[in-house]
């Protein structure tokens, strides 16, 4: 008899991939049929919202991503939360002072759906520097659920990853690396409103194509063009649309890396100014010193 000690077992239990679902083509077909239901049809900044601007959404999105990463939530929690936020903003005019509260509520709902141990209202309030109260979170939870019509099982780009990668002839270790980079690209797309109206299947396919190209991984049996055509065929995506989405993802990544490097340089310069003053700025004449 084999004895198993569970004292050091992880607190959060995750389900293993189900081959019955991943190998059944009907699962992907069902997701492709319903994905448009969870995608904004038009830009709500033009026709619904009066106070909220795209940069405000981006700031809240990065904050939500940081909270989910720090709490080690599933990647799906952040994507679902952003889906709830976009669907709510596309239907209800919202004041900018309520945007962070809305983001916290969306994470609250998404974690309840996906996490074994969901985020608590008290913890989310702490992440807002206690600018909101737990009761505010609970009150808005009912409001958001009503506007979403209690339909929380939205289709997200992550739902397509395993189905798409399972149809590509890459070694297992390469597939894991591609998946890791794909998840990063998808999270980046979720923070950028320019991708909000793209179907989840297109974002997933474009992210996989961008990851393969960025990693320089080649398939012995397919050329780069043939691989792109295969990806488009798997998700029934127009080839030109897929190429455009991939290029937009790569451009967004390049811009993100550029901004990150600029911030690092600014921080380095600021640190040098505080801790290591530039000697050339020292006055050579006492009359240049302002007391």
Short description:
It is built from 13 helices and no strands. It is mostly helical and 291 residues long. Residues 62-146 form the Cyclin-like domain.
Give the strand tally.
Answer: 0
- Biggest β-sheet, characterized? none
Shape: globular
Number of domains: 2
By CATH, the superfamily of the largest domain comes out as Cyclin-like
Distance between the termini: 83 Å
CATH class of the largest domain: Mainly Alpha
Question: Helix-strand pattern, N to C?
Answer: HHHHHHHHHHHHH
What structural class results from the helix and strand content?
mainly alpha
CATH architecture of the largest domain: Orthogonal Bundle
Q: What ranges have pLDDT less than 50 throughout 5 or more consecutive residues?
A: 277-291
CATH topology assignment of the largest domain: Cyclin A, domain 1
Give the percentage of residues in beta strands: under 5%
The amount of helix comes to 55-70%
What's the rounded overall pLDDT mean?
86
Topology record:
Elements: H1 19-22, H2 25-34, H3 44-47, H4 54-70, H5 75-89, H6 99-114, H7 121-127, H8 134-147, H9 158-165, H10 172-191, H11 200-215, H12 224-234, H13 239-275
Helix pairs in contact: 4-5, 4-6, 5-6, 5-10, 6-8, 7-8, 9-10, 9-11, 10-11, 11-12, 11-13
Structure description:
The chain is mostly helical and 291 residues long. The chain folds into two domains: 40-148, Cyclin A, domain 1 (Orthogonal Bundle); 157-266, Cyclin-like (Cyclin A, domain 1, Orthogonal Bundle). It has 13 helices and no strands. Helix 9 (158-165) packs antiparallel against helix 10 (172-191). The longest helix is centred in the C-terminal third of the chain and has 37 residues, at 239-275. The chain is globular, with a radius of gyration of 23 Å. Residues 277-291 have low confidence and may be disordered.
């Amino acid at each position: 008899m084999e004895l198993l000690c569970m004292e050091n077992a992880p607190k959060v239990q995750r389900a293993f991939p189900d081959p019955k679902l991943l190998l059944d083509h009907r699962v992907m077909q069902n997701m492709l049929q319903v994905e448009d239901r969870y995608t904004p049809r038009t830009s709500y900044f033009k026709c619904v919202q009066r106070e909220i601007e795209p940069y405000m959404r981006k700031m809240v999105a990065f904050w939500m991503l940081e909270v989910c990463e720090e709490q080690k939530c599933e990647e799906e929690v952040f994507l679902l939360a952003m889906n709830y936020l976009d669907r709510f903003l596309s239907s209800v005019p919202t004041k900018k002072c309520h945007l962070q509260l809305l983001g916290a509520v969306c994470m609250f709902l998404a974690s309840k759906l996906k996490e074994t141990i969901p985020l608590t209202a008290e913890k989310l309030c702490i992440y807002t520097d206690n600018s909101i109260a737990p009761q505010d979170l609970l009150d808005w939870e009912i409001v958001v659920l009503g506007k979403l019509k209690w339909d929380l099982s939205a289709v997200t780009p992550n739902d397509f990853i395993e189905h798409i990668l399972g149809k590509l002839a890459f070694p297992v270790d390469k597939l894991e690396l591609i998946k890791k980079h794909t998840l990063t690209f998808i999270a980046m797309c979720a923070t950028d409103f320019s991708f909000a109206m793209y179907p989840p299947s297109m974002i997933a396919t474009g992210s996989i194509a961008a990851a393969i190209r960025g990693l320089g991984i080649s398939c012995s049996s397919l050329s780069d063009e043939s691989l792109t055509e295969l990806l488009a065929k798997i998700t029934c995506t127009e080839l030109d649309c897929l190429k455009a989405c991939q290029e937009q993802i790569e451009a967004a990544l390049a811009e993100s890396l550029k901004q990150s490097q600029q911030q690092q340089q600014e921080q380095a310069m600021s640190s040098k100014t505080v801790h290591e003053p530039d000697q050339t700025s020292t006055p050579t004449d006492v009359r240049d010193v302002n007391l």
